[in-house]
Design a protein that fits this description.
The longest helix has 21 residues, at 440-460. By secondary structure, the protein is α/β, with parallel strands linked by helices. The protein is 31% helix and 17% strand. Strands 1, 2, 3, 4, 5, 6, 17 and 18 form an eight-stranded mixed beta sheet that branches. It is globular, with a radius of gyration of 23 Å. Bound molecules: flavin-adenine dinucleotide (FAD) and 3-acetylpyridine adenine dinucleotide.
Length: 535
Amino acid sequence: MTPAALRRELDMVIVGAGFAGLYMLHKANELGLRAEVIERGDGVGGTWYWNRYPGARCDVPSMEYSLGFDHRLEQEWEWTEKYATQAEILAYIEHVADRFDLHADITLSTTVSATRFDESTNRWSVTASDGVERSCRFVVMATGCLSAANVPDIEGRDAFAGRTFHTGRWPHEGVDFADRRVAVIGTGSSAVQSIPLIAAEAEHVTVFQRTATWAVPAHNEPLEPAAVAEIKADYAGWRRRARDSSSAFGGHQPRRDVSALDADEAELAAQYDERWAVGGLSFLRAYEDLLLDERANATAAEYIRRKIAEQVDDPETAALLSPDTIVGCKRLCVDTGYYATYNRPNVRLIDVSSDPIDRIDEAGPVVGGVVYEVDDIVFATGFDAMTGALDRIAIEGRGGRTLRDVWSAGPLTYLGLQIAGFPNLFTVTGPGSPSVLTNMIVSIEQHVEWIAAAVAALDDGGLHTIEPTDEAQTEWVGYVNEVANHTLFHGCSSWYLGANVPGKPRVFMPLPGFPEYRAVCDQVVADNYRGFVRT
Ligand code: FAD
Ligand code: N01
C-alpha cells in the first residue's frame, strides 16, 4: 500500500512544462480542475529550457512566436529582436508561469515513466520518478514534438576521449570552445544556427554533412518600436491572419496564389529576390505550388543554389553545400552567416553522404579510414520527432494495450488529439495534426483550447470519458496520408517521416494545412463530437 504522502488524487496530469503544458495548466485552473504539471527539466520552458546551444533562436518572428490568448500579456511583453534568442524566449515563458501563477502546480525534475488506464474506475494512474502515485481523470501529453534527443548510435561513441554535446541538451553554464578543435555532426537547423558561432570561437571546426540543407537568410535585426507599436495596435488582426494562413504565421506575407510555372525567369528572379531580401520561411510562399510540384520547386532550388555559390568562395565547398533535394521537404533552415562561415580558414566540410562516419574512436570521428582528431564533438543530430517522447513512456490503455504496440507501424490518432483505446488521454500537437508544419504556439493554443472545451463539455453533460472510435481514427489517418500524398513531403528522408531514426516506421506524421484542420476540429465539436464516443 502506497503511503498517503505518496498518493495524489487529481483531475488532470499534464506531462511537460513547455508552452503546451503551461497553457494547459492555465486552462485547467480556469475550469477549476485540480491539475498538476510534471516536468523532467529543472525549470519550465521545454524546448527553450533544453536548447541553449550558441545561436539558438526562433525562426518564426518573435511577435508571432508568442502566446495570443491574453491581450494584456501580448501588450506588456517587449520582444527586442525580429527572431528572439533562446534566453529571451525562456525569460518570456518564465514570465508567463509567474504571471498566471502556475508554479505551485508544477513539479520539476521529475520524469513520468508510465501511465495506465483503469477501466473499472475510468481513472489513469501515473508513475513518476518522484515516487508519487498520481491518480487522475485526464492525462495531457504536452511532451513536445522535438524533445527526445536523437544521438546516433555510432560505433565507439562512448570511447571518445573528449567532450560530447547534443544541441538539445546543452549545458546551462555554456561551453567554452576557445582553442578547441570541434567536430559538428549534422547540418539541420541546430547546426546552421550554431556552426557560425562555434567557428568564431574555436580553433578549428570540422562539419560532417550527410545531407546538404537548404537555408534562406534570417536578416535578424532589432525590432523598431514603431513596427512593434503597429502590430500591437492590431494584434488581434495579426493573430487572426496567422491562424488563417497554412503555417499559422506570416499572415502579413501570405502565400501568393500563383504558380511558379506560369512565371518567366525575370519574374521568378524578382519574386525570389524580394523574398530573399525580407528573409525567413515565407520564402516558400512565393508561389502556391512550391511544395506541390517538383518543377515549380526546382525554380526555387535553382535560385538558392545560385545564392550559395555567391556566398561560398571555394566552388567545391559550394557544390557540396548545394542540395539536390526538394526545397522545404525537410524543414527549411534560416541562416545567419552559415554559408559564409565556410569561407573561414578554420572551417572544413566533410561529406559523409556516401561514406558515413564508420565509428568514433578516442581521437574523433573516423570516415573512410581517416581519423578526424578533435577535442569536442557536437551532435546536432536532431530528435526522435513527434512520437519519441511518447514512446519513452509506458502508456497502457483499455485491455492492457500499450501505445508502443498500437503505434508499432506508425502513429494512429484522431485529429492528432486522441487515440482510440486511450480514453481521456490527449496529445498536444500530436501526429495527424498540423503541429510542426506550423507556428507551433498557434497550434498549441488551438489544441489546448479544444481539449479544455472537450473536458468542460464532458463535465457539463455529466459524462466521464471521451475517446475516438476506431472508424473515425482509421478514416482520419487515411485523410492525413491523402493530403500529404498531394505534397512533395515524401520526396526526402526527413524527420517528418521518421526517417532520421533507424528502425522507425516511415509515415508522414504531421498534416499540412492549418486553417482547414482547425475548421474540421470546430465542425467535429459542432457535430456533437463526431467520431468520438463519450460515456
Ligand atoms: P516542449 O517545449 O518540447 O516541452 C515538452 C516538455 O516535456 C519538455 O520540457 C520535456 O522535458 C518534457 N517531457 C517530455 N517527456 C517527459 C516525461 N516523460 N516526463 C516529464 N517531462 C517530460 N517552433 C516554431 O513554431 N517556431 C520556431 O521558431 C521554433 N524554433 C525551435 C527551435 C529549436 C531549437 C527547437 C528544438 C524547436 C523549435 N520549435 C519552433 C519547435 C518547438 O518545439 C515548439 O515551438 C514549442 O516550443 C513546443 O512546445 P511544447 O510545450 O509542445 O513542447
Ligand atoms: O535536427 P535535424 P535539428 N551521421 O534532424 C544529421 C527545429 N529547430 O536539431 O539530414 C551524420 O533537422 C542529419 O542528416 P540527414 C526545426 O523544426 C528549429 O537541426 O538525416 N549525420 C541532419 O543533417 C528543425 O527541423 C530551429 O542526412 C547525421 C542533422 O543531423 C528541428 O528542430 C533550430 C547522423 C539533424 O538535423 C530539428 O532540427 C533548431 C549521422 N549518424 C531546431 N544522424 C530554428 O531555427 C543525424 N545526422 C528555429
